[in-house]
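Need tokens for this chain, all 598 residues.
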Amino acid sequence: MLSTFRRLAALAVLGLFFCTFINLKNEEPGETANWLQSIQFVPAWLGTVSGKTWALAALIGLTAATLLFGRVYCSFLCPLGILQDIAIRARKLYNKLLGRKQTGKTVRYTQPVPYVRYAVLLATVAAMTGGSALLLTWLDPYTIAARFAAGYVNPLAANVNNLLLDTPLAAPLALTHMPPDWMRYGLLLIPIAAFILLPLAFAWHRGRLYCNTLCPVGALLGLISRRPLFRLSVDSASCVKCGNCLKACKAHCIDLKTHEIDTSRCINCYNCVTSCDAHGLRPRFTNPFKRRTAPAAKPAAQPQAKPAAAPDMARRAFLGSTILGASAMLSSCKRDDISGASLDPAKTGTNAGHAATPPGSKNLDFFLDRCTGCGLCITACPTHVLQPSYTTHGLKGFMKPYMNFTKGFCNFDCNICGTVCPEGAIAKLPLPDKKKIQIALAEFHRDRCVVQQNRTECGACTEHCPTKALFTVEETFPILHPDKCNGCGKCIRICPQEALSVQTDADGNETAVLDNKKCIACGKCATACRKRQAISLQKLLIPQMDNKLCIGCGACTYACPVRPDRAMTMTPRLVQLEAVQKIEAPAENPVSTEEFPF
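Here are the structure tokens for all 598 residues:
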């Protein structure tokens, strides 16, 4: 009964987990999805460090459940653990189809190797204390499963959605065509596959080996669950040593010789309870403070008495390191401020970074220290401006999101990324506060603008600026008429920018040539050429900007029609500041195509 309940609950959790990443309608995930992410162990811990009340409640609940029942998180709630269970079940079905019997190699009790898992835990905690989430990014079970869902499950769901468009289900489900964004992760799909295949390969051959050797969450929960209040135990009087429990155990933690179960490795799958025909295995209340003794046996089989156990200094050291790491990160949270007041731009140089981070991520170091690169914000972003990083953030930011303004823009009326972030790396800002955060600063390259180059109206950037940081001013531009030019050179001699030169055609005729990129529209050339009127003046509107109003949403960059180098570029902010708010009027969604947008 317990095993069946556990399987149904685990499948429900896995289904909801995948649904969170299948964002086909570009809508904000529901409360169920947000709740599911918040009860994952690492997101709950990082959220607690970032000062989130719900994360603290979730962390206390997970810790209490572990102290009461053991590692129930690993069996009921961990998406990677559930995927490993599916791989184990697939292996059994595969052997059954081939008529193979379970080999004796896997039907045995395996001695624990605590030094490996505790070394991984200590290295992870030490790295986090030192300000690096790299190991956690690689080994966290939630992050591994989340990246798999974002990189593979989401595009696959889009393909299935498109196949259903020609079926009667399309209308009731309100399906629309969704382009499968396989290339959002690009070559990163290879390491994503490697990260997910490693624990699944372990599960196929050796059960929950990954959970008890490389997983830092498993190591920490194993320390907490060494003596739970309710734990599985073997009834020596009922046990006939048939070995069925050994065949069912995924963690190889049942020792029939001593009738003991290693609770630090047991994941509470309850398969052993179901497999025991003698009903010798069941959860029992135990006193966690009572010293365990070996069961009575014949003198010949009596194992050598072990000396009284000394205080478990290793356990205390690891738990102490964890607390110190959390305290260090908590103190860093207190230093950071969303307004940037405690991180003065004057102390950070020009406050210019190499990649923008989502609004609400405070500053680059804060974001990289807390983000594990799960990809949930990337999947949820409706404009696809959030993209996974290769080397944009350096090795520390591998697979973590950054703002790619050539792929999209940050919608002025959207704060989904902060809403869905389970780790506290992106603050959940109210929409009015989010609209003031300056994540980058727009820069206008006049020499690239079509107004400057082609002497034609545009205004795409100013049309789509939501804060009106961009506006147009009227300027008078010289227009050269080669058919009226006799090549006298008066305009060339008077031009202060050397924007004019003489060109000789095939017939030997000399005419002036105007370089629009160098021209500053002073009009001196037109005055010098007043007699022949080979240069006329035309009034055009050209963009200008007020840096204090810019929030760096990237709408101007995305809308700019100039290719390949756009006239509007974004300079990311190392520290996110608060912009002056002049107007709150939503701009039209930018249109970015190879054709001119107007």
